[in-house]
Amino acid sequence: MSLAKVTFVGHVSKDINRTQTELLVVPGGGVFYGSITARKLAVECVVVTKLADRDVELFKPMREAGVEMLTLPSRETTTIENVYPSSNPDERKSRILYRAEPFVDEELSYVKTNVTVVSALWHGEFPERLLERLRSKVELLVVDAQGFLRNVLEDGSMKYADWHDKEKYLPMIDIFKVDNNEAYVMTHERRLERACVELSKFGAKLILATHKEGVVAYDGRNFYEGKFSDYKLLGRTGRGDTCLAAFLAGLMNGKSLEESVELAARVTSAKMQYAGPYRGGEVV
Q1: Rounded CA gap, 205 and 218, in Å?
Q2: Alpha carbon distance 159, 95 (integer Å)
Q3: Would residue 146 count as lying in a domain?
Q4: pLDDT tens digit string along 205-239?
């Protein structure tokens, strides 16, 4: 198994992003934004994803960035419409139009690195039982809360609900990524730092939390914080995925927690100047 690579597991997404003034249809999903960011920061990446054959070409920016892609077949590609009704980037309404098939146990055989990020888009995409199996395969398990809180309703709208099995699964997780809304859903704490403390009590070793002004990491003892610079609303999609990947890349490149949080804030700020994934630059 490789210590130098990271595997991102999750669906890619065809994203339809609407703001008050613009509409874009773009490739997306946590594994898309995250793997490209990590690769731009000198980390070798593998993506294990599921999508329809007809949509493979849409996600060629990952291959062009040097990401190794393992595309598992699915009748549909997950397709999500994101609507931003105001200038607040945390105020987002999402609707899922199509879903690729969930991951199954035997597909974990494609994970061959000791660092793995589970970046699912909706609850059920990566069944919880697979976390236990994955924990036994890897040394560093990173999980984005979104894939376990965002539930798809009959009309395609998505509603956030607490992760009822968090007491069982959070102790298996080394880095748990949330945004301020997800942290509130799981803890009912409005203050983000208090929410991070509560989440830490469930057993995750490190909490990484984003909000509209920046990013906070909490390791159970200390807080580390980085501020975002001014950004454009259209660059909001992929914020958390970029931030998590940049933070992880910092750690894998030997940076301290403090340095990794600062790197994550700089990279995310740069990415949010434009739609699409992080393009690289002089922020490191």
Answers
A1: 9
A2: 9
A3: yes
A4: 999 999 999 999 999 999 999 999 988 777 888 89
Overall number of domains in the chain: 1
| Token pair belonging to 183 | 């942290």
Give dist(CA 268, CA 167) in Å, integer.
30
Angle in degrees, 0-180, between the axes of helices 30-40 and 239-252, rounded to the nearest 10:
40
Give me the CATH number covering residue 11.
Answer: 3.40.1190.20
pTM exceeding 0.90: yes
Q: What is the residue range of 165's domain?
A: 2-271
Q: Torsion angle of alpha carbons 210, 124, 9, 193, nearest 10°?
A: 20
Residue pair 253/245 in contact (Cβ under 8 Å)? The answer is no
Task: With both helix axes pointing from N to C terminus, report the angle between 257-271 and 30-40 in degrees, rounded to the nearest 10.
Answer: 110
Would the pLDDT of 133 be above 90?
A: yes
Q: Is residue 279 part of a domain?
A: no
Q: Write the DSSP assignment of the chain as a string of letters.
A: -EEEEEEEES--EEEEEE-SS-EEEEEE-HHHHHHHHHHHTT-EEEEEEEE-GGGGGGGHHHHHTT-EEEEEE-SS--EEEEE--SS-TT--EEEEEE-PPPP-GGGGGG--EEEEEE--SSTTSS-THHHHHHHTT-SEEEEETHHHHEEEPTTSBEEE---TTHHHHGGG-SEEEEEHHHHHHHH--SSHHHHHHHHHHTT-SEEEEEETTEEEEE-SS-EEEEE-----GGG-TTHHHHHHHHHHHHHHTT--HHHHHHHHHHHHHHHTTSSSS----S--
